[in-house]
Amino acid sequence: MEMEGSVYRAHCLVVTYPSQGHINPMMQFSKRLDHKGVKVTLVITNFISKTMHKEASSNIALETISDGYDEGGKAEAESIHRYLDRFRRVGSQTLIQLIEKLSSLGGPVDCVVYDPFLPWALDIAKKFGLVGAAFFTQSCAVDNIYYHVHKGALKLPLSETEILLSGLPPLQSQDMPSFIYDFRSYPAYYDILVGQFSNFDKADWVLVNTFYELEQEVVDWMAKMWPLRTVGPTIPSMFLDRRIEDDKEYGVSIFKPNTDACMKWLNDRSKGSVVYVSFGSVATLKVEQMEEIAWGLRMSNRFFLWVVRASEEAKLPKNFVEESSEKGLVVRWCPQLEILTHEAVGCFVTHCGWNSTLEALSFGVPMIAVPHWSDQSTNAKYIMDIWKMGLKVPVDEKGLVKQEAIEDCIREIMEGERGEEIKKNALKWRKLARDAVDEGGSSDKNIEEFVAKLVHS
Ligand code: UDP
């Protein structure tokens, strides 16, 4: 620990998994810790460090470890299994070296906050006798489902259509994460997700990027067994409680946002008139699916702002961008927080990645759920039926979201009675999310407790 005046400053190493949806929440949690007086070092991979766009607002110290692919090639690695195996070997070695280096430079580490996609980081923390805190980047409900699988309490492949699990509402099989209802579709990801629990009994803390009021029942159930604390939503403070003045953006962006074009275009649109569409940083859609979405947006006759990553662009119908230019703007990446808080945006067609879901909940933006894979189907179920914050677009017999279905949902949200109800709920969640991170809120108190125990451990 470092002495500053007469006060001890604990030092946390925050070890991230290299994807946007995992780096963002851990970076934000780091800023909250920093604000509460903890010294924080965020650990990213060499490759991310070389390729990222660093935004102005982040003054958190960065260090790197290696995943064994410093020149990239993660996606091209023969299989995700192989990638993770190499990451575990090379990552462990380089994390050990980093902890030793920081110690020899006079900044010894007290605690490792790690992404449970990398359970070996906890083993290393324990080897050094450090505090270990798992930081889950998915919802508590989803974590609970994988925990049941890990324990053998949910047998796969699923044999029933209705699934009853402690802490959760009755779920249909298609409400389960895709790696569970479509068992063996991605064995490597399934292994990562279930593997999060392989050693987590050794963790001193289980932190989850959610907030108590959002997932009360499942949090209460899980907190009976573990030192679980909700610490989210991990969204830059200036968009929520406004207590950390320079915290206006996530800080690290894997893609370069097209900010000026987006904001200029949105500023010319009237309140609530724009449909914002994004499927996050990872999802790859089938050509057929891209076409249905494109025609659905066209048929809705609404203004739309659609994020299509460069690697997905070729799947757009020919001349779609040019022919839609009066109504729509298509960009490769955008500053999503600024978009979702812009008054012109009336609804969000989303893949329901957990960060996007939390962002829309926190800003009161109604969602139109088009889940792609992983936990997104479970998030979509909660969005529509539990939080009543949006609609899930039905799929046809091939699992495809058709253009008419998209158009229907857009109309229902933008002008229908159900839309009114959803907008009312959206405002309720916006307030609850802000209150959770504001002074004395449920997440704020949990972070305070974590910090207080760290200083005294
Ligand atoms: N995001 C962004 N610009 C975009 C699209 C997404 O900044 O054009 C951010 C978004 O705000 C969120 C993250 O990328 O924080 C995506 O995370 P999410 O969990 O929603 O999805 P994933 O990318 O992991 O599938």
How does this structure look, described?
With 457 residues, this protein is α/β, with parallel strands linked by helices. It has 2 domains: 2-251 and 436-456, Glycogen Phosphorylase B (Rossmann fold, 3-Layer(aba) Sandwich), CATH 3.40.50; 258-334 and 343-433, Glycogen Phosphorylase B (Rossmann fold), CATH 3.40.50.2000. It is built from 17 helices and 19 strands. The strands form 5 sheets. The protein has a 7-stranded parallel sheet with strand order 6-4-3-7-8-11-12. It has a 6-stranded parallel sheet with strand order 16-15-14-17-18-19, with helices on both faces. Strand 14, helix 10 (287-300) and strand 15 form a beta-alpha-beta unit. The termini are close together. The mean pLDDT is 95. The site of uridine-5'-diphosphate has 19 residues, from helix 1, helix 12 and helix 13.
Please sum up the structure shown.
With 457 residues, the protein is α/β, with parallel strands linked by helices.
